[in-house]
């Protein structure tokens, strides 16, 4: 079992990574809560909700199970969670447990951030991707006009990551999670990037997977400690997300997984970095790895004008000027403002490169 401590300006919390730790939840709670609401999605609830319920026999415990998938990160589901919290009489001493992937984490975290102006919550990630989403306190729901546009920075009280739950993930969710690991490696750790490119992500040993998760979490934890509210280096964690988020929203939430969209966005960032800095980037190498691992790279309906509009409503934009995270070289990320005309040019040449 491994423990990583995050000390941010607004909170400090432990991230515990281990096997079977979902059965020892009391060990990770900071206080004796008056009641608990477990939020999960229908897939995860069917697999693991009973395990979590077994932890608490001495206090009122409730559950809200939402439909699985990105579409649940919406206003209606958020409102339903608030209604559930009111009906279950949650009070300011209650706890929300987010049991699931990034969708549940973002949604339940935002519900916790806003219910009675904020109650405690813990993250119990159950996807590889959620090694990223469960750390750092970004909680949000989507708007049909853009990803994560309604949200807050609201750190959890603890992250309890039982990696045993990852065994039930399907191939698509494995590759989705590995896209964020590649992102962390690209911005911060060249050795890690090379290790990942040598990894057969569909035949991972437990120790290999746990090593990758630890390395990814450490990179993320360090960045959010230094810059919790994204005024500086936290923007680097958005590598690949300017186009990635635009694609998710434009194609319709859930068409591509978040990680699949980010993977395309990472390639676009390398493509733009090559042009802007006139340096060679590992574009072809990463594209080949992604292709070999069946990331959907071709047959994407790129609507350039619409994508540019979506990119302008990205949270990094200032005065509607698109800002992208680029790489001067591996592990040397920078944030660059780009003209719309240039983005259009880069998108067009990228689309040609992707067929
Ligand atoms: N807050 C952040 O910092 C941050 C960071 C990265 C991503 N995100 C957000 O995270 C979301 C994506 O998260 P995700 O990829 O985990 O998606 P997800 O939560 O939708 O989970 C993916 C699918 O896997 C299923 N699932 C989850 N755990 C499972 C398990 N153990 N076994 C079997 N099936 C399981 C889910 O039911 C779902 O169908 C996006 O909305 C993205 O914007 C947020
Ligand atoms: O934690 C961060 O900061 C990130 O950017 C991590 C991203 O992987 C994640 O998808 C995040 O939700 C994107 O943030 P947003 O502010 O662009 O919505
Ligand atoms: Zn992401």
UniProtKB/TrEMBL annotation:
List of residues binding NAD(+): 102-106, 126-127, 138, 147
Stored InterPro entries: Dehydroquinate_synthase, DHQ_synth_AroB, DHQ_synth_fam, DHQS/DOIS_N, DHQS_C
A UniProt-annotated Pfam family: DHQS_C
Role summary: Catalyzes the conversion of 3-deoxy-D-arabino-heptulosonate 7-phosphate (DAHP) to dehydroquinate (DHQ).
Gene: aroB
Family: Belongs to the sugar phosphate cyclases superfamily. Dehydroquinate synthase family.
Pathway: Metabolic intermediate biosynthesis; chorismate biosynthesis; chorismate from D-erythrose 4-phosphate and phosphoenolpyruvate: step 2/7
Organism annotation: Oceanobacillus longus
Subcellular location, record wording: Cytoplasm
Residue ranges constituting the 3-dehydroquinate synthase N-terminal domain according to the UniProt record: 65-175
Molecular function in Gene Ontology: 3-dehydroquinate synthase activity
EC number from the UniProt entry: 4.2.3.4
Name under which the protein is recorded: 3-dehydroquinate synthase
Ranges for domain 3-dehydroquinate synthase C-terminal: 177-317
HAMAP family in the record: DHQ_synthase (MF_00110)
Record text on cofactor binding: Binds 1 divalent metal cation per subunit. Can use either Co(2+) or Zn(2+).
The entry's keywords: Amino-acid biosynthesis, Aromatic amino acid biosynthesis, Cobalt, Cytoplasm, Lyase, Metal-binding, NAD, Nucleotide-binding, Zinc
Cofactor annotation: NAD(+); Co(2+); Zn(2+)
């Amino acid at each position: 079992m491994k423990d990583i401590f995050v000390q941010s300006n607004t909170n400090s919390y432990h991230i515990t990574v281990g096997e079977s730790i979902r059965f020892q939840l009391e060990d990770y709670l900071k206080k004796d809560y008056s009641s608990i609401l477990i939020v999960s999605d229908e897939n995860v609830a069917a697999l693991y909700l009973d395990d979590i319920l077994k932890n608490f026999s001495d206090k009122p415990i409730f559950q809200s199970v939402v439909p699985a998938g990105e579409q649940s990160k919406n206003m209606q589901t958020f409102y339903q969670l608030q209604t559930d919290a009111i009906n279950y009489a949650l009070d300011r001493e209650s706890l929300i447990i987010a049991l699931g992937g990034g969708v549940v984490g973002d949604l339940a975290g935002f519900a916790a951030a806003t219910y009675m102006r904020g109650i405690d919550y813990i993250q119990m990630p159950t996807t590889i991707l959620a090694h990223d989403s469960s750390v750092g306190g970004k909680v949000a729901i989507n708007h049909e006009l853009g990803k994560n546009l309604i949200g807050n920075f609201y750190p959890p009280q603890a992250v309890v990551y039982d990696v045993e739950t990852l065994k039930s993930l399907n191939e698509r969710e494995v590759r989705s999670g590995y896209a964020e690991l590649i992102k962390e490696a690209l911005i911060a750790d060249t050795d890690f990037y090379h290790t990942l490119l040598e990894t057969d992500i569909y035949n991972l040993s437990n120790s290999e997977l746990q090593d990758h998760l630890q390395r990814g979490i450490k990179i993320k934890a360090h960045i959010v400690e230094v810059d919790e509210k994204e005024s500086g280096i936290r923007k680097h964690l958005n590598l690949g997300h300017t186009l990635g988020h635009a694609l998710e929203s434009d194609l319709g939430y859930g068409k591509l997984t978040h990680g699949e969209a980010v993977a395309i966005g990472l390639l676009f960032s390398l493509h733009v970095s090559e042009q802007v800095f006139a340096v060679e980037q590992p574009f072809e190498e990463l594209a080949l790895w992604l292709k070999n691992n069946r990331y959907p790279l071709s047959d994407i309906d790129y609507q350039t004008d619409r994508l540019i509009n979506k990119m302008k409503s990205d949270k990094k934009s200032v005065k509607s000027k698109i800002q992208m995270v680029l790489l001067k070289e591996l592990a040397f990320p920078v944030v660059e403002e780009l003209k719309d005309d240039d983005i259009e040019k880069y998108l067009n040449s990228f689309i040609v490169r992707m067929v």
